[in-house]
Write a structure and sequence with these properties.
By secondary structure, this protein is mainly α. It is built from 8 helices and no strands. It has a single domain, classed as Rhopdopsin 7-helix transmembrane proteins (Up-down Bundle).
Length: about 300
């Protein structure tokens, strides 16, 4: 009787956790959906049409959104399959049905893992390209971030493949492989965030010496935007690692969050680029300085008149 009660509690806890994961991912997907359509609208505006690589950015963001959408759909399917698995577990005599349903659930989770890792690759590609452009296309600057991004992708796919070979669903907990992939992904994002923000700060610092505090204030805002976008992914990734180390089941909820954040973060960056609120190259700094300088020059002429 006691064992039956414990099994019932374990099944209830497992189902509740799965539904929490589905709920939070559906909520974040709603945000991702709105951002995506706003991003596409922004990139189609007349001002954004002059952006270099506009088609590439559109394709990249659309690809991430597609993978996030597929992950979002499978999250709900996974929750439904888990209910079927747990119900089969409750019927102790129906071993064949339980094994069949568990195998289906495993395949769904492994597919979700593939979509997540692929989304990370595309998102990292956007961040690497932005850093590369801002640094004047200096290849040596992005060598290390590209290396860590490749390592993250390799480890992510390895964890999924191993789970597929072993018929395991919980690739989130497979020894150290997937958490190490998250570590490399965090390193990639942190390095790119620091390199991009640092480069903009340095260029703007030189411009501020000539143009005054107006330029400085503008680019402090841009740097803050970059740091916020980077922290949007790094923070939940760090929380995932902490919960993984503590062996908490809530790790799955954080992973459901990451599955959509990986699409939200780069989409925000592309929206800001399309709106002209971000920097994509050193030329943008020069043009912005000239935009600030022109009104100031006109004002000084008016004062003299």
């Amino acid at each position: 009787m006691g064992n039956h009660h414990e099994n019932a509690e374990a099944i209830y806890a497992s189902l509740s956790l799965s539904l929490y994961c589905a709920a939070i991912e559906w909520f974040l997907y709603g945000i991702n959906l709105v951002l995506f359509f706003f991003c596409i609208y922004t990139l189609r505006r007349s001002r954004a049409r002059a952006l270099p690589h506009r088609c590439g950015l559109t394709l990249a963001v659309s690809s991430i959104f597609l993978f996030c959408t597929l992950h979002w759909i499978l999250q709900l399917v996974s929750a439904g399959k888990l209910i079927a698995v747990r119900l089969a577990e409750a019927k102790h005599g129906d071993t064949h049905t339980h094994l069949a349903k568990n195998a289906e659930w495993n395949r769904i989770n492994i597919t979700m893992g593939v979509f997540y890792v692929t989304s990370i690759i595309v998102a990292d590609g956007i961040f690497v390209f932005r850093c590369y452009e801002i640094w004047g296309r200096r290849k040596r600057v992005v060598v290390v971030p590209i290396t860590t991004a490749v390592a993250s992708a390799a480890l992510g796919y390895a964890s999924v493949i191993i789970c597929g070979l072993r018929s395991l669903a919980q690739f989130l907990f497979i020894n150290w492989i997937f958490p190490l992939a998250v570590v490399f992904s965090m390193l990639t994002n942190t390095m790119l965030m620091a390199l991009t923000a640092g480069r903009i700060w340095w260029i703007a610092r030189g411009a501020a010496m000539i143009m005054g505090p107006t330029v400085d204030r503008q680019y402090r805002t841009v740097v803050a935007m970059i740091l916020e976008s980077g922290a949007l992914y790094v923070t939940p990734a760090l929380l995932y690692l902490i919960l993984y180390a503590a062996e908490r089941a809530s790790t799955q909820i954080i992973f459901a969050t990451l599955a959509q954040i990986v699409g939200i973060a780069p989409t925000i960056i592309v929206v800001r680029v399309g709106l002209g609120s971000s920097i994509t190259s050193p030329r943008d700094v020069e043009e912005s300085v000239m935009d600030i300088r022109a009104p100031n020059s006109d004002a000084s002429v008016d004062d003299k008149v």
